[in-house]
């Protein structure tokens, strides 16, 4: 299994707008995606009010590639959120059970 950690930092002043997208669009989308075993969304804390994250557990690299394409190492975002995000990162790990 593959653990995929996706993190974003919103643009200043876009925290509320991104939060709405995160809760109403991104979380339901990821929870309903074929190949995802578990989704752990992370909302900002007081000391990092612009940072959001997802930890996703995928059943296989093939499932992940079926969702994002062969360029799975790039942090893809929905076009509707592009203007809200200043910075994004993506990391992948083999899940240790």
UniProtKB/TrEMBL annotation:
Q: What is the lineage of its organism?
A: Bacteria, Pseudomonadati, Pseudomonadota, Alphaproteobacteria, Rhodobacterales
Instruction: Name the source organism.
Output: Boseongicola aestuarii
Q: Would you tell me the protein name for this molecule?
A: ABM domain-containing protein
Q: Which InterPro entries does this UniProt record tie to the protein? A: Dimeric_a/b-barrel
What top-level branch of life does the organism fall under? Bacteria
